[in-house]
Amino acid sequence: MRKKIVFKDEHKRKISTTTSRRIISDETRKKMSLAKIGKKLSDETRKKMSLAKIGKKLSEETKNKMSKSRKNVPNYFLKGKKLSEETKRKISEKLLGRKVSDETKKKLSVIASKRKVSEQVKKKMSLAKYNSKKTIRVLIDNTCYLSLCDAARTLGTSAASVSYRCKSLNFYNWSFINEDRISK
């Protein structure tokens, strides 16, 4: 084990002034950076580094640089990482029932309107929506509709009237495809 060296305050000041005047070349900086890659810091060291940063204020310039570097990068801290199904489930459960303010809803709406989605992705999203447990497929005159609302939109009527007709005995060519979810 290395012996701990204790410097006097005067000696510390001399070291500080000489190192602060030193100019390090880009090549040397790169070498120093590469030397540190892959090395794990101890929990104690990480805690000390964390405590040293408490209370320090970042300049507006630094804040702007950090903000700019994270813009247009979805989930900055998760970039490049694959989440397990269990983690995805936990995140989903944690977010369920969360109240979102009207202001936030407006912001999300603006962001979503600017997002460009390919036709292939739109089709996948649509199918995922219709394959959920909440949708009820309808069969009318040998035409299958993916949901009550889809049938109502196509026929120019309300979803309630489509549902009524599917349940009614008078409309024999109107029916639900997955009747196990329907209470008549």
Overview of this structure, please?
A hairpin with a 2-residue loop joins strand 1 and strand 2. Helix content is 54%, strand content 5%. The chain has a domain of 51 residues. It has a three-stranded antiparallel β-sheet with strand order 2-1-3. It is mainly α.
How far apart are the termini?
Answer: 80 Å
- Output mean pLDDT: 83
Strand content: under 5%
Uncertain parts? none
Structural class by secondary-structure content? mainly alpha
Q: What spatial form do the alpha-carbon principal axes imply? A: elongated
Strand tally? 3
Strand order of the largest sheet: 2-1-3
Instruction: Sketch the topology as an H/E string, one letter per element.
Output: HHHHHHHEEHHE
Largest sheet: 3 strands, antiparallel
Share of helical residues: 40-55%
Total of DSSP H or I helical runs spanning 4+ residues: 9
Radius of gyration: 31 Å
